[in-house]
Design brief:
The chain is an alpha/beta fold. The chain is built from two helices and eight strands. The strands form two sheets. A four-stranded mixed β-sheet has the order 1-4-3-2, with helices on one face. Strands 5-8-7-6 form a four-stranded mixed β-sheet, covered by helices on one side. β7 and β8 form a beta hairpin. The longest helix has 11 residues. The model has no long low-confidence stretch (mean pLDDT 92). GO terms for molecular function: lyase activity.
Amino acid sequence: MIKGLRTVAYPVADLAAAKAWYSKVFDTAPYFDQPFYVGFNVGGFELGLIPDGKPGQTGSMVYWGVDDIAAEVERIVALGATVHGAIQDVGENIKTVELADPFGNLLCLIDNPHFDLKAVR
């Protein structure tokens, strides 16, 4: 049986800069910090940084949950991200946005009032 999201991995060319930036974005230090991989615990899920990778903005998109999408966009843009796709209401008061991190990856956010944390396994 496939379970829910566990890890999102972003390739980065500058591991030290990416570690510092994501520490600010998620307001947490990595729990795993090695030259070959840096891992952050974000709300029980993992954000991983892989060094010497080729960042990109194509392929799968992973959305991180937030409660106030406009405030988070403002905060993360102030940290150096750019808006790749504006905040959109995709229906039933669910809002999404795509930000570009300083390393060439997409950092996507979702404000979904219907998300049921009790259903996570």
